[in-house]
Amino acid sequence: MCKIHCTFAQNLKYCAMDNIPSFNSFIEQSIIKNWDKDALTDYKGSTLQYHDVARKIEKLHIMFENSGVQQGDKIALCGRNSSNWAVAFLATLTWGAVVVPIQNEFTPEQIHNIVNHSEAKLLFVGDVVATQINPDEMPNLEGIIYIPDNSLVISRTEKLTYAREHLNEIFGKKYPKYFRKEHVSYFKDKSDDLAMINYTSGTTGFSKGVMLPYRVLWGNLDGLNDAIMRHIKSGSNVLSILPMAHMYGLQVEFIIEFCAGNHIFFLTRLPSPTLIQQAFSEIHPAIIVSVPLIIEKIVRKKIFPIIQNNRVKLLMNMPIIKEKIKERICELVKKEFGGNAYEILVGGAGLNKEIEAFFVSIGFPITIGYGTTETGPMITYSDWKDFVPGSCGTAIKHMDVKILSNDPENIPGEIVTRGINVMDGYYKNEQATKAVIDENGWFHTGDLGTMSKDGHVFINGRIKNMLLGANGQNVFPEEIEDKLNSMAMVNECIIIQKDDKLVGLVHPDKEEAESLGFTDDDLESIMEQNRNELNTQLPSFCKISKIVLHDKEFEKTPKKSIKRYLYQSAV
């Protein structure tokens, strides 16, 4: 029987793990096949070709070997996206150690806790994180390594100090002539070997260590290759926007792209819409992977001001030329996103319905995927040609999905899934594992949704976010927020419950308000108009009693979900 989570193993359909190839073999093959191609570039900085990546991996392997790092040891990695972050990640996996990516947005206390909880032996840190952490709070670490140049921030063993100081010497003795592609040979993983522990960022404030064996990485790679990469020519440019310490960005913007032989560009700093747009225009990415917030801001700030004028509206009302106008608008939007993308894949949250409807109306290649850290991450996805508005796709290869409802098409129920992509469990937390993976191997996502007859999944919201109306009706705040976010002067919002009343907490569009000379009183008046208009679109049991202005942007997780728990007492 497979050495995987026992409840998962009970389902024999998914127990034929012997047929899963070594995941590291795909990294190895890509490096050898694409030896002289561009691999990793820090945007506006230097480029590593695949043979440069291989050489850097080999040097880290020498350092691991000579400092006593064993297969199965934990190595933590905390820093902003960069080529050297990617190299450290690949080196850890291909050595057979367990990589522990940590969100660089986490507080020092959170970083200390994760390093200690995961029992990491080494910690790689970026330039900012290096100045924030306190090594004394992580007493079991043998060393801290600086990501930009692999120098030692701190070493607590003579073996590590010697290995780093004599690294070039050891490398030169091992490869006296030069390092060639035939020297590339990596740890041959088995499907149930532990590859990663990824700590959830979540919106509840509590971080759990998700144990992802190599089968999860392979399941996602194989599924995404089948669904997406067959449309993307090897050697294409790709822009990495999302944090690689989060499974969505790591898997879809980096791992599958590297294994496909693509050229990956890292922004290396906080990705503002302006910076992202500039990068799109220079890099011309073959696919765009993003969270809704980025796409929505670009459309609202750059596209809508151009097309939402009387002339365009007039032309759109003329049946004879309406389609030609749509084609022109579609080309304009494609150009804003670099002009070369096969599709835009949105994940992490639902796309605003107004923005989604706009994309669909002009025939733009947009699609939405769905997943969780616990599934590394993919659960559902559909190609843009099969995209159904409001849906997040159908079950991806290797995964089954069902809705726990007596009428899954019409009555929302919890979305559950099982298959190769499901985690082994939460590290050192059997109770939490049993709470989400049942005896038949179904992972309970905590999301509510419905499913059409042809398998398209529609998400209503999180179970924990669902509110109970005054008469006992279920209220999904995400659905109300989607409508409110499309209204005048609303930058972002959340719906909270105060006693039996629903209240909209709104962070207004400050930039727009200042440009128009609006005062706080003006904004209050606009929000009251928004409230009245919103309530005409809502059932009686979920009407908004008032809208309260919130001066600052809401705090968010790395995938740009608002940390709701921080604002439940804000009104």
Task: Give a quick set of tags describing it.
Rossmann fold, 571 residues, globular, 19 helices, 27 strands, 3 domains, 4-stranded mixed β-sheet, single chain, 22% strand, GMP Synthetase, Chain A, domain 3, alpha/beta
Number of beta-strand segments: 27
Number of domains: 3
State the helicity in percent bands.
25-40%
Q: At CATH's second level, what is the architecture of the largest domain?
A: 3-Layer(aba) Sandwich
CATH superfamily of the largest domain: ANL, N-terminal domain
Extract low-pLDDT stretches. Answer: 1-15
CATH class of the largest domain: Alpha Beta
Q: Major sheet: order of its strands?
A: 4-3-5-6-7
Q: What structural category do the secondary elements indicate? A: alpha/beta
CATH topology of the largest domain: Rossmann fold
Strand content: 15-25%
- Global outline: globular
Task: Describe the structure in brief.
With about 575 residues, the protein is α/β, with parallel strands linked by helices.
Please tell me about this protein's structure.
The chain has 571 residues and is an alpha/beta fold. The chain folds into 3 domains: 29-188, ANL, N-terminal domain (Rossmann fold), CATH 3.40.50.12780; 264-463, 3-Layer(aba) Sandwich (Rossmann fold); 466-566, GMP Synthetase, Chain A, domain 3. The strands form 8 sheets. It has a 5-stranded mixed beta sheet, with helices on both faces. A hairpin with a 6-residue loop joins β15 and β16. The longest helix has 18 residues, at 50-67. The model is unreliable at 1-15 (pLDDT under 50).
